[in-house]
């Protein structure tokens, strides 16, 4: 029971974080000022892709938990690999984007890490 609660909290949190990542995409791109159209497209693509990846992870964990439960082998694999990907993304963000002055990007590694921890702890309970 507690493992399901942790999984639902983590999946909803990372999905909301992904949506919050996607919403300001145009503002983020515009903040780069005068750049080439190719660079605008690349930044748009990458910014939205990270948000979509976060949403996918959240929805996947949510659906696996709701439909398959937290105790079967496939579920545990999904939770573990989702946590691993979030940790890789957190590390990448810490090395790159978190060095900017933008506050949401600075806290992004902590959000991803916290959700990854929720997924791991839930899979161990």
Detail the topology: elements first, then pairings.
Blueprint: H1 2-22, H2 25-30, H3 37-68, H4 73-95, H5 103-124
Helix pairs in contact: 1-3, 1-5, 3-4, 4-5
What does this entry show, briefly?
This protein has 125 residues and is mainly α.
Notes on the structure:
By secondary structure, the protein is mainly α. It has one domain. It is 83% helix and 0% strand. The chain is built from five helices and no strands. The chain is elongated, with a radius of gyration of 16 Å. The N and C termini lie close together (9 Å). The mean pLDDT is 93.
Helix-strand makeup class: mainly alpha
Reported for the largest beta sheet, the result is: none
Overall mean pLDDT stands at: 93
Oligomer: single chain
Tell me the radius of gyration.
Answer: 16 Å
Distance between the termini: 9 Å
Instruction: Report helical residue fraction.
Output: over 70%
Spans of at least 5 consecutive residues whose pLDDT stays below 50 are none
Order of helices and strands: HHHHH
Globular, elongated, flat, extended or rod-shaped: what is the shape? elongated
- Relative strand content: under 5%
Number of separate strands: 0
Indicate how many domains the architecture comprises.
1
Please count the helical segments: 5
